[in-house]
Amino acid sequence: MKPKQLFLLFAKGEAVTWTLLISALIIRAAGDPIPHVVTIAGSIHGAVFLGYAVTALLVGINQRWSFGKLALAVGLAIVPFATIPFERKLIRTSALEGGWRTARSEDPRDDFFIDAIFRWFIARPIVLLAVLLVAVPAVFAFLLFLGPPTQWFD
Questions:
Q1: Which string of DSSP letters, residue by residue, matches 17-81?
Q2: Long-range contacts of 84-87 (CB under 8 A, 24+ apart)
Q3: pLDDT higher for 44 or 152?
Q4: How far is 40 from 113, CA to CA, in rounded Å?
Q5: Which helix (H) or strand (E) segment is 86 a member of?
Q6: More confident position, 109 or 67
């Protein structure tokens, strides 16, 4: 799967899960006829959010986005549906075009340590997937342990 396809998959998934979560909140506000609907929708949204964040970082590093654009890509996921206009702008500016950078090029930016680690993992997708299958659920479990974001600073 090319970087563009992967990013668009998770960006659209982020928007869909926002719809699920907002719908669940409306259902709860209407008298909570479906127990645990917010918990279920929130968990789905949280998992997709983490997947989107990881995907945005991987694709952004691959496409050599600036730190600001990387932070914006991840940060916009916090705002409902904000990934949609961002995704459209990336398509319009061709910021998602190209394949995965698995080998060093003549570009001087390939000399950075993070690029070497990135290329190593991208060239070994099974290893990358295994690391992500451990790391992302670990982060998700930690966030579940912390509880709802509205209670983090109480």
A1: HHHHHHHHHHHHHTT--STTHHHHHHHHHHHHHHHHHHHHHHHHHHTT--HHHHHHHHHGGGSTT
A2: 84/11, 84/15, 86/11, 87/7, 87/8, 87/11, 87/12
A3: 44
A4: 40
A5: helix 83-92
A6: 67
